[in-house]
Amino acid sequence: MDAHSLELLEFPAVREILAEEAASPYGVRAALDLHPLTSFEAAEAALEETGEARLLLAQEDLSFQGVFDLRSHLKRARLEGSFLTPQELLEVASTLSACLRLKTAIQRLSPAYPRLQQKARRVVALDALVEGIHSAIAEGGYVVDTATEPLRSLRGEILRLREKIQARLQALLAAPSSQPAIAEPLITLRNDRYVIPVKSGYRAFLKGVVQDASQSGQTLFLEPEGVVELNNQLVRVRRMEEEEVKRILLRLTAKVRQHLQEIEETLAALAEVDLTLAKARLADRWRASRPKLVREGKLLLLKARHPLLLEHQRRGLGFRVWGLESGIKKGEEAINPMPYTLDPGISEVVPIDVWVGEGFRALIITGPNTGGKTVALKTVGLLSVMALSGLHIPASPDSQIPFFRGLYADIGDEQSIEQSLSTFSSHLSQLLRMLEAADEGSLLLLDELGAGTDPAEGAALGIALLESLLAKGALVLGATHLDAIKAYAFTHPEMENACTEFDLDSLRPLYKLSIGFTGRSYAIEVAERLGLPVPLVQRARELLGKREEGVPVLLDRLRQEQDRLKVERDALKRVQEEAARHKARYLELLAELQAKESHLHREAKRQLQELVASARREVERLVAELRRQKGSREAIKEVRESLEVLEAVNLPSFLVKEMEEVQAPPVETPSPGQRVWIRHLKQEGIVVGPGPRGMVEVQLPLGRVKVPLETLSSVKERPQTSSFTPSFLIRPEEVTLSPELSLLGMTTEEAVKVAERYLDDAFLVGLKRVKIIHGKGTGALRRAVEELLKLHPLVEGFRLADFNDGGVGATVVELQSRGG
User: Fold this and answer.
1) Nearest-angstrom CA–CA distance, 404 and 293
2) Residues 495-540 pLDDT 10s
């Protein structure tokens, strides 16, 4: 990932805020070193780890107490012959103990945190090293007497000598003969030797060695002659003690050196755990969400907010910190982006929706100065970098970010005095680097596209650059004020316009992004709002005149039309959603009714089966009774009464119908005009004739169908006239059908199908005579219609229309009369 682009997107500022959430110096360093990950799998895993840590922090937090920064300690311990101080060794032991406690705490968690537990397993338990340090060094950094036997012996000797020296000095201070010379009755140390304060005028009164004097010179610190040798012995023993302590520290440091690899691995695991928890805390701090990461495809950010603006709001800072220009909404009023103090209780960052990569691969953002174009680019870039670094982003969880192998930004004015580069040259140099590096896995953010030079030439260069980047397969977001680039984006199939919204009534930017629309710069209007004198504003409008109004006015009209279409589209969408809800409710009710019907059907069948079984048993009993009584008058009367009871039983109508269907014989050789029952359609129809592949064509009330022969059953014939007269005909007053049919403009095949359906419908509504208009032409359509009329069973006769009624261009058809 391009380091310069990360600077332009202010990712270092995010890292600094992330470091504030770390609990250890290792987490701080890891946060400050955070970079986008180099593989999709690693970025996906990092996002999952952050989510896992957020779940953990919602339950409990982990303690990092006792962790010290050991980097300088370990660097010195690496050198052969070096040794750490007692305090440094205690910090090593404390840190290792804290890491082990952290590992134990994580391992005790439920299996819901597998990634954190995997990191914690890398912590190495160095109990022997920790115990060795604590057995030799006490809290406060003091090497204990019991560290070694020689040290215990030497410190015992030091104690004996010290007591002997102090006893002699106490005796000297208490002697009456010494009183005139003693400046103060106390024993003190000078040059690591025990002395007593003596008045300078009595120097000759006491024998000994002067070790020091007061600033005034009135007091001398004298080592009396009687303790000189004892002090010499004490100094020698102390030196021996220091050598023994050094040997102890060398030995302990050597043990640290032996385990440097394990210690560094443990500290690396500690840093990763701390960094992951810091990411989780930052996500909670910004109310962030985990975006969907995809290998390639559409970039989609919904309700996206710039994290640094959120931080400004949270801290109540001024607006333009870190070079941002965007909007903070206070109530319904859009605040001018100038430094001021935010009120976190009532202010909020305006979210944006932005997408690219589906339908178009370049999005050109337009709109007024200070309207939020730059912050929109930075929001897209910064949130993408954050996601690829394993950070959750302040946007909707429905957001989607592709795994970009490269992300390049050219944002802001980067004039270089040292390299003698103008704004245009600086931009061009950066664009050349981006053009060389861009590929189909790249995202490019281009601010002020085509700016810094002649507008016409700048627009031409900007368009050429966009075409080249699209040819390389990259995704591009650009911001511009140039009308030529806006207009070109309208015509290019892989480009789309967007604008930052502007309130024309208040002449204030709204900091919202609308895709599919273009915006104007409103430079004169903004200048007027910011206080430019009215005469200057009027003169600017005069100078602008008509020569620059063409494209802006056209784009404004186009935007108004787009606004109107958007309103209509939204209304249509609401209607469709309402219809979908009604349909869903209808299907739900239909399913309930079908379920109830099925239940009632099953229950009725069960009852019928029980009734039939009961009747069968009753008949069998009656027959047996008749046989037993040999047809006695009383038995015959009882049988007759029982049969009357059975005959009085009413069966459900649908079961009777099913019984009739089962009893109805199948149709073996259907003939035209025969009434049949189509079992799977539950409808009655009239056979028209045989169809292809064993099918039979049947006339139904609303049209013809072709059904398999085996699905047909015979139905009882009803009285009918000699002509073909279905019993289910529709009354003429029920349907309105034109007596004329026009086939003009149709192919022969289309015309025959339409005419056939029309004749059926005309017969069903009771029309006696109709006219089919087929035109004169080559006569092919007329001949096709005649062939249809010759074979159609409902046609009584036909003829060409009279000369005044269409002549050879139309045919009059007489249909069969309807039956009763």
Assistant:
1) 10
2) 999 988 877 667 677 778 888 877 777 778 777 877 889 899 888 8
Mean pLDDT within 134-156: 94
β-pairing, 400-402 vs 292-294, is parallel
Count of alpha carbons within 13 angstroms of residue 674, beta-carbon side: 19
The CA distance from 549 to 120, in Å, is: 66
Name the residue with higher pLDDT: 430 or 632. Answer: 430
How far is residue 551's CA from residue 558's CA, in Å, rounded to a whole number?
Answer: 10
Cα→Cα distances 639→74, 620, 630, Å: 112, 11, 13
Length of the chain: 820
Q: How is the chain split into domains, by residue range?
A: 3-126+259-285, 149-230, 294-548, 566-647, 664-718, 729-820
- Confidence band of 342 (pLDDT split at 50, 70, 90): very low
Q: What is the pLDDT of residue 345?
A: 37
Structure-token pair, residue 257: 């050196």
CATH match for 3-126+259-285 among 3.40.50.450, 1.10.1420.10, 3.40.50.720, 2.40.10.10? 1.10.1420.10
Which of the pair, 650 or 159, is modelled with greater confidence? Answer: 159
* Report field, pTM of the whole predicted structure over 0.70: no
Calpha distance 708→691 (Å, rounded): 9
Element (H, E) at 769: strand 769-773
Q: Hey, what CATH class is 664-718 in?
A: mainly beta
Give me the CATH code for the 729-820 domain, please.
Answer: 3.30.1370.110
pLDDT digits (tens, 9 = 90+) for 402-420: 999 999 999 875 544 344 4
> Beta-carbon neighbour count of residue 314 at 10 Å?
13
Strand partners, 769: 814
Phi-psi region for residue 416, left (φ > 0), alpha (ψ -120 to 50) or beta? beta
Nearest 5 degrees, angle CA 668-CA 672-CA 676? Answer: 55
CA atoms within 13 A on the CB side of 369: 9
Half-sphere exposure of 691 (CA within 13 A, CB side): 13
- State the number of CA atoms in the 13 A half-sphere of 575 facing the CB: 6
pLDDT of 140 > 50? The answer is: yes
CATH architecture of 294-548: 3-Layer(aba) Sandwich (3.40)
Half-sphere exposure of 472 (CA within 13 A, CB side): 20
Q: Who's near 200: CB < 8 A, 6+ residues apart?
A: 213, 217, 218, 219, 220
Strands 193-199 and 675-678: unpaired
Looking up tokens 């895709």, which residue turns up?
A: 515
Report DSSP letters for 627-694, one per residue: HHHTS-HHHHHHHHHHHHHHHTPPPPHHHHHHHHHHHSPBPSS--TT-EEEETTTTEEEEEEEE-STT
One-letter amino acid at 574 equals R
Across 572-605, b (16+ Cβ under 10 Å) vs e yields eeeeeeeeeeeeeeeeeeeeeeeeeeeeeeeeee
- Tokens representing residue 518 in the block: 């273009």
At 126 the pLDDT is 95
What confidence score (pLDDT) does residue 454 get? 80
Mean pLDDT of all residues belonging to the chain: 83
Contact present, 757 and 652 (Cβ < 8 Å): no
Q: How many CB atoms lie within 10 A of CB 626?
A: 15
Greatest mean pLDDT among 76-90, 321-335, 440-454, 634-648 lies in 76-90
Q: How far apart are the first and last CA of the chain?
A: 86
pLDDT at 762 over 60: yes
Instruction: Report which of 594, 393, 368, 397 is spatially closest to residue 503, judged by C-alpha positions.
Output: 368
Sign, CA dihedral 314-320-323-326, equals positive
How do strand 442-446 and strand 328-330 relate by DSSP bridges?
A: unpaired
